[in-house]
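Subgroup meeting minutes
Present: P.N., E.W., G.H.
Scribe: E.W.

1. P.N. recapped why we're keeping a running log of single-chain structure predictions: easier to compare across weeks, and new members can see raw inputs and outputs side by side.
2. G.H. added today's entry (96 aa).
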Amino acid sequence: MGGTQVTVVHNPDAQRYELRDGDAVIGYTQYHPDGDVELVFDHTEVDTDYSGQGLAGTLVRFALDDVRALGKRVVAICPYVDGFIERHPEYRDLAD
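Output recorded in log:
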């Protein structure tokens, strides 16, 4: 919708990865740590004004790449994250 480019950032204080259009948060995937190694992803959503643009996939890919870089693992309770991992076998090694 807005004229700016949508970006993805990790917001560790809120325990989520966010899609932003300028300063506005337009989507997120949230997690909570389970021990020192696992991050439990339990919810993903994107503002309906931005649906159909593949942004949820962009968001989850960014999050999973970051989890890998951090040396952590994923527990996908969120159906979207779980389905994304199933559709992208390159991320299956991260899933517990």
